[in-house]
Amino acid sequence: MNSNSELKPADDDPVLTTSAAARLLGVATSTVQLWMESGAIESWKTPGGHRRTRLSRIARLMEPAAKEASATVGQAVEAAMSDMTPAEFQPLPTPDYPVGKDEPTRLVALAASGLIDTPAEARYDRIVRLAAAVTGSPIALISLLTARRQWFKARVGLDAQETPREWAFCSHAILAEGPFVVEDAAVDERFRANPLVLADPHIRFYAGVPLRDAAGNALGTLCVIDREPRKLRATELQSLLDLADIAMEELPEPGDRH
Asked: In this structure, are residues 178 and 148 in contact, taking their beta carbons and an 8 Å threshold?
């Protein structure tokens, strides 16, 4: 949306900042930023890298709420998103895995990050190698969770590039405030029938830390896995937390990859 006509002032259709649009819509500025980056709200970037939109585009989103008491601005934006967002970034109506109430926003944030299906990058590969080394784990992953799959941005000790989302231990981990640890998956009711426990890679131990973007959305995890039940020592857990902090610093801002 970078045509010259977008940048020309128009008295009858003012340019709005993200914060001004957020005030009109009654949502957080960070939410409007994600909607703009995903394409749900038409916008363009200024030379300084800030998002702008037109009042008319915000007004169109507010129309359903004005016409129908049952409609909301959020529903209007979600309807717009459904037309432009790939299916794997749209929440499933009845998922076979746990989700938080912010799952729609989380998926928009993941789509806006531009990370899914990108090539391997040395900065992320280093982090998983270090995570495996400092915890003595054969497997370490940076896992990102779409609505349909768990995709590995970086991995060591595992050949698979992705697994179905419903198999993902990380679906539980992204709901946690801190580290999520399973000391023996074979006796844990949530995981003992999981295909990743019953077959390769035969997960018994899992420890994952949510990876949150600047707005607090958990895009995925940094996790370590073992084929034997075990516990992490305090120093190992702290090292995993420190590496997760480094990984979060490397996450792109919305739109950086566009």
From this structure: no
